[in-house]
Design brief:
The complex is a heterodimer of chains A (445) and B (256). In chain A, the strands form four sheets. Chain A has a seven-stranded antiparallel β-sheet with strand order 14-11-13-12-16-17-15, with helices on both faces. Chain A is an alpha+beta fold. Chain B is globular and about 65 Å long. By secondary structure, chain B is an alpha/beta fold. Classes of the chains: A alpha+beta (445), B alpha/beta (256). Chains A and B meet through helix 3 and strand 6 of A and helix 2 and helix 6 of B. Chain A: Involved in D-lactate, but not L-lactate catabolic process. Chain A: One of its GO terms (cellular component) is mitochondrion.
């Protein structure tokens, strides 16, 4: 008997396109079971939808053509920790917070922190990033090896079984082929990750600016000054206002930067001093910083509550996050043009961004029962993506292509690029069983 | 208050990283092989508080103590990496360790407190594997010291301690004399992470191993575990349309 489980419809891609549950859900407990099940699906030409925590934001787990959802939550072991080599291998059921709790006593951590407590293998599948990518990179830089079950059930180790050198130039880079493949090339059943030492000390700071330009200039100059800043987060005036209302805070309602520095006690003093001088020279004001955990959390409260503060602006509405990324130098221009677009089209879209990477999110707060508004939001997001593409950027910095950005991917890559991607897909999954309908648009006969 | 602090009982305790805890087939206990052990979360908070007091120069020295097999030394090392000065490992293993309970541990701590001339004992309020919430209280009773349990705020005032306790009715403010026993509750502080450089430094700090017999303590248990079993499987719930239906169903089930 088929067992149907509902999937959560909390991403706009899904609620724009209706919830798409699979026909069957299976819960394999080991890679041998995943492989055997994949062989069955392959034989009967059944679509395969890998499922980690289901926290992706681009409809990645929607079963567009039905099929079999492989829920990997029962494979939840942390295997092979090598503290002296700074690497660890985990199964798909292990989330980033679980891993960091496991690693506590070793003095190591895995720093990539997307909003949700996501499956690490899932994060590899979507090439996830977090607020400290500016210092630690994204999944692309931090996955050393993957164990993947392909559409026909065969199992491949992308860097060779059990191998974990810090660098390699052996053959094609299969590991990074699967990172970001969003379940369309294979099911990731193990990932070997690069770990980092927990910073000796952390300092957080907040600073207000008279303009977006001033905030971004400060960011660029701080990076150019060689400050190994760990996090630079940008909140625009609309977002700050929302946060003030939501959390009863009193930040000045202007573009604001939230900064975080990691290092030894001595290096922190120097880093903070340099950053403070730079912000002042750009017209920054109200520079506050803190060393102890409790005060740091208070300073960053606005940033932590941003999503909820945005939602609270219009109770009863849902929120959708845009995700463009442009070269740093283009960031002020794109944010200014985007804000003008929002005002002109009467849309609610407070902005929060990982400004050190040139990546920002408009949290579009929209009434799901108002088709006219939904349509306006949809058009806005397309204009925004095209604006970013025109500035040498990408339509998705962190969230992936999923369902909603397939057409934009074609514009971003161009026909030859898409053709190369399609050729790889055809080589590894000729029957288009692996998460069909994601990333690439197939011409339906 | 210049004194030595005999810091928390850092009991290696089942870390929540592992999947379901399973009952042994013979119902004598839970499976512990291969289950990841690490410092009890409330003990982490106690260690953090002790280190904070030392950083404020209110106490002279923090000593971390753990009772258990060889592996307990790892939790002592973590405490040292957080800032404790030295460690004492009370070696209890095998059947003795399986039967080790709050009464024996508190006897050990009382003996150590006298030996070390400690002025303050800080522990976690309870271990998350047995949830006994007894060791702190028993230790205070054995030493005839005042106790401040479920502490969410601690401040030293001369040779007295001001404490805020989290109790069912709210927050209780008390003042106790030293020497004293304090048990840490969740909101006392946020424990620091042991960083790599501090872990390396901690390797040079001393851990001394003693046996309970050296302290004159008999660890024979006065309790015998008869049976350990899983709680009954949760039954499916039922949805009803109206409040009236709910009342009817509750009456049918004999609940009202």
């Amino acid at each position: 008997a088929a067992k149907v489980e509902k999937t959560e419809c909390d991403s706009i891609a899904l609620f724009l396109c209706r919830c798409r549950p699979p026909d069957v859900v299976v819960f394999p407990r080991c890679v041998e079971e995943v492989s055997a099940l994949a062989k069955v699906c392959h034989k009967h030409r059944l679509p395969i939808i890998p499922f980690g925590t289901g926290t992706g934001l681009e409809g990645g787990v929607g079963a567009m053509k039905g099929g079999v959802c492989f829920s990997l939550r029962n494979m939840e072991q942390v295997l092979d920790l090598h503290p002296e080599d700074f690497d660890v291998t985990v199964e798909p059921g292990v989330t980033r917070k679980t891993l960091n709790a496991y690693l506590r006593d070793t003095g190591l951590w895995f720093p990539i922190d997307p909003g949700a407590d996501a499956s690490l293998c899932g994060m590899a599948a979507t090439s996830a990033s977090g607020t400290n990518a500016v210092r630690y990179g994204t999944m692309r830089e931090n996955v050393i090896n993957l164990e993947v079950v392909l559409a026909d059930g065969s199992v491949v180790h992308t860097a060779g079984k059990g191998r974990r050198p810090r660098k390699t130039s052996a053959g094609y880079n299969l590991t990074n082929l699967f990172v970001g493949s969003e379940g369309t090339l294979g099911i990731i059943t193990k990932t070997t990750l690069r770990l980092y030492g927990i910073p000796e000390a952390m300092v957080s700071a907040v600073c207000s600016f008279p303009s977006v330009q001033a905030a971004v200039d400060s960011t660029v100059q701080t990076l150019q000054a060689g400050v190994p800043i760990a996090r630079i987060e940008f909140l625009d005036d609309v977002m700050i206002d929302a946060c003030n209302r939501f959390s009863s805070l009193s930040y000045p309602v202007t573009p604001t930067l939230f900064l975080e520095f990691h290092g030894s006690e001595q290096s922190l003093e120097e880093q903070v001093k340099t950053a403070e001088d730079i912000t002042q020279s750009n017209g920054g004001s109200d520079f506050q910083w803190a060393r102890d955990t409790e005060t740091r959390n208070r300073l960053w409260k606005a940033r932590h509550d941003a999503w909820y503060a945005a939602l609270a602006l219009r109770p009863g509405c849902k929120a959708y996050s845009t995700d463009v990324c442009v070269p740093l130098s283009r960031l002020p221009q794109i944010i200014v043009e985007t804000k003008e677009d929002l005002i002109e089209n009467r849309l609610t879209g407070p902005i929060a961004g990982h400004v050190g990477d040139g990546n920002f999110h408009c949290l579009m707060v929209v009434d799901p029962n108002d088709p006219e508004e939904m349509h306006r939001v949809h058009l806005f997001t397309e204009r925004l993506a095209r604006r970013a593409l025109a500035m040498d950027g990408t339509c998705t910095g962190e969230h992936g292509v999923g369902l909603g950005k397939r057409a934009l991917l074609c514009e971003e890559m161009g026909p030859v690029g898409i053709q190369v991607m399609q050729s790889l897909k055809d080589a590894l999954d000729p029957n288009n069983l692996m998460n069909p309908g994601k990333i690439l648009q197939r011409e339906e006969p | 208050l210049s004194c030595k602090v005999l810091s928390s009982v850092v009991t290696p305790c089942y870390c929540f990283v592992s999947p379901q805890i399973r009952v042994k087939p013979d119902n004598t206990g839970v499976v512990t092989d291969g289950v990841k052990h690490s410092m009890n979360p409330f003990c982490e908070i106690a260690v953090e508080e002790a280190v904070k007091l030392k950083e404020k120069k209110l106490i002279k020295e923090v000593v971390a103590v753990s009772c258990g097999p060889q592996q307990s030394q790892e939790t002592i090392r973590t405490a040292l990496a957080m800032g404790a000065d030295r460690g004492i490992h009370v070696d209890v293993s095998g059947k003795d360790y399986e039967n080790l309970g709050p009464l024996q541990v508190s006897k050990i701590l009382a003996a150590l407190a006298k030996q070390e001339d400690a002025q303050l004992i800080l522990l976690g309020k309870q271990a998350i594997d047995d949830d006994c919430n007894q060791t702190g209280q028993m230790t205070a009773a054995l030493l005839d010291w005042p106790q401040g349990t479920f502490a969410s705020e601690v401040s030293l005032e001369g040779d007295k301690i001001n404490l805020v306790r989290e109790i069912d009715g709210g927050l209780e403010h008390i003042k106790i004399n030293t020497p004293a026993v304090i048990t840490a509750d969740l909101r006392l502080n946020t424990p620091r992470y042991a960083t790599l450089p501090n872990i390396m430094k901690a390797k040079k700090k001393k851990i001394v191993t003693v046996k309970p017999a050296d302290l004159g303590v008999d660890v024979t248990s006065r309790l015998e575990v008869l049976k350990v079993e899983e709680p009954p499987q949760r039954q499916a719930g039922m949805k009803v349309e109206t409040v009236e239906d709910l009342v009817v169903k509750l009456k049918e089930a004999g609940r009202v």
